[in-house]
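Marked as duplicate of an earlier ticket. Keeping the data here for the record.
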Amino acid sequence: MNIQIHESAFVDEGASIGEGSRIWHFVHVCGGARIGANVSLGQGVFVGNQVTIGDNCKIQNNVSVYDNVSLEEGVFCGPSMVFTNVYNPRSLVDRKKEYRDTLIKRGATLGANSTIVCGITIGEFAFVGAGAVVNKDVPAYALMVGVPAKQIGWMSEYGEQLALPLAGKGRATCKYTGATYVLDGTVVTREKNKG
């Protein structure tokens, strides 16, 4: 298989890694991890046993993807962003049975140094700004910034802010791709191509 694994990386027996994936310096992939095709794991990445990473994900340097985190296809994890899997950790209390599932849906971006508190879902193509702390579910296409993260807009699949209000009705077109997005209430969807 066409998989690139740097000599300093540790990939435990049993790990599943898809075709075309690249594993860089000082990465540790645990044996239960499931990693798709064309995934890039940057320097110092850790991937736990109960982790699924979809095709075409990019995980930048110094990111730990802990147990019970699932990334769908095309998720971008910026440098040093943080996942958690226990809501109220204590060193003196064993809480491994209390891990909360975290789901990052297709195409979402998690900016550098952002923190994703466990037990939430981040919608398709949502965009979490650098340094944001996300502690609740995020809708598809939402642009989130701050501590705690608040929605300030909507993003296209291309990664550009859309000229839409936070709620109500509206339509906006991505100037780079021509794709049209429709706001209905507090939900944005991409309009299907006609024909």
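See parent ticket for discussion. The CA atoms of residues 62 and 80 lie 5 Å apart.
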